[in-house]
Amino acid sequence: MYTHSEINSEIQFLAKSEIRMKILSELYNHPDNIRGLVKKTKITYSSVSSNINKLEENNYIKKVDKKYFINPMAKMYFNNLMEFKKSIDIINDFNSFWDKHNLNQLGIDSMKNIADLKNSTLIETTPLDIYRTHNTIKSQLVDSKEVKAIFPYLHPEYPKLIEEILKKGGSVELIVPKNILNPIITPIDGKLRKNSQISKKLKVHPVKNELNLYLTLCDGKMSLGLFKNDGSFDQNRILISGDSKSYNWANELFKHVKQMVRT
């Protein structure tokens, strides 16, 4: 059993060398010899040979029939490092989205799996298109039949958009602050609203506490918005994605918030 310090030492040995990471990346699925690695990585023969020796000495790889293979423990370390790197990349790529924003309601699992948002796109308003974020969300809602959403504030178009989804036989599940429950629900046609609630096509979870994030899940697409640290909603940028991993990430976040507001 490895101690905490030994694990840190192992990870540092791999992480501090880009060459070793590249070698392991190539060997992960395709065992190869030194000349093959030189050709694939474009790294000099001497550098590849030197780092191969270090990896072999530290029992990360083994040589079988002139080819090098990764050992199972090294694969575990490599996988964890790559996931960590993806998380760092997500944070850096969308720095303006995360920085100086309230992340309290994301939850531990959402933060841990942040790399699932890799294939997302950051949508930002411009001086010539100040409604770009809202129109992006609106286009998702208009074309959807199954919607889950966390609406921390009321937009005048939301009741009509929800009504149209219900008219088409779709379903809507909302998490909203208690103070906007009536304004967002009562404008919907009374008969349609009642029938939708009876058939559970319309579910609403009002919450007393503040909601510090905005989230929509629309037929496989997701959008995420955050509040700034000063308590104001950042209407200038949202993260969107139609990727299945991103959607599943958002769905887990929705369930997390729903469970959190129930307790």
Describe this structure in words.
By secondary structure, the protein is an alpha+beta fold. The chain has 12 helices and 10 strands. The protein has helices at 4-15, 18-27, 34-41, 45-57, 72-93, 95-98, 107-112, 132-142, 158-167, 181-185, 190-198, 244-262, and strands at 61-64, 67-70, 101-102, 121-124, 146-150, 171-177, 202-207, 213-218, 221-228, 237-241. The strands form 2 sheets. Strands 3, 4, 5, 6, 7, 8, 9 and 10 form an 8-stranded mixed sheet that branches. A two-stranded antiparallel sheet has the order 1-2. 25% of the residues are buried.
Quickly describe the structure.
This protein has twelve helices and ten strands. It has 263 residues and is of the alpha+beta class. Strands 3, 4, 5, 6, 7, 8, 9 and 10 form an eight-stranded mixed beta sheet that branches. It has a two-stranded antiparallel ribbon with strand order 1-2.
Describe the secondary-structure layout:
Elements: H1 4-15, H2 18-27, H3 34-41, H4 45-57, E1 61-64, E2 67-70, H5 72-93, H6 95-98, E3 101-102, H7 107-112, E4 121-124, H8 132-142, E5 146-150, H9 158-167, E6 171-177, H10 181-185, H11 190-198, E7 202-207, E8 213-218, E9 221-228, E10 237-241, H12 244-262
Parallel strand pairs: 5-6, 6-7
Antiparallel strand pairs: 1-2, 3-9, 4-10, 5-8, 8-9, 9-10
